[in-house]
Amino acid sequence: MTSKQLSLSKIAVFITAVISLSFPSTKTPASCAAPLNGGDFEAQTNQRISSPWVGEGRVGVDIGLGYSNRGKNNVWMRNVSGWNGIRQRVRLQPNTQYKLTAYIRTSGNVTDGYFGVRDAQQKVFSEIKFGSLPRYTPMTLSFRTGNETVYNIFTGFWALGQDSWVQVDDYSLTGGSCEDVQLVPANN
């Protein structure tokens, strides 16, 4: 190497060192898919609720009607009797802490609403009871899974002999890590 090449090489090393010191690398934590899919209902394309969500009773989707908490769409449940709700099957890590949140609004006569998590056999695992919610209200449920991996998140209400409704939007489910966090098809 000539002395000129050696000097240029030293300058290149110096510049690289200065750039490395001036602009530290930023590490972004790995991002994994949420165990819940379509919690804002924006991907719903018709008024019938569809996968990954499952309807229970009389339910549907308001598309672009201005009833959502955010975005254009939300889910509704409306009836005069019986259970009316929605659910989504998710795979979660065993013995892990999670936080489930959704925004819920109801007619003034709702007294028997439920938001929570069921096990794979649809038995209630953890839930919150709600009544009349005149404005979208965030409901948050913190829970720790058991030894199982399949759960069902749900929201619904018992209509008690008069026209009643519930609207739901903006579900989120956080916790766990990237391993074993995946969507389970609704028909399983």
Automatic annotation (TrEMBL):
Highest taxon in the source lineage: Bacteria
Gene3D superfamilies xrefs: Galactose-binding domain-like
Name the UniProt record assigns to this protein: CBM-cenC domain-containing protein
Species of provenance: Tolypothrix tenuis PCC 7101
Taxonomic placement: Bacteria, Bacillati, Cyanobacteriota, Cyanophyceae, Nostocales
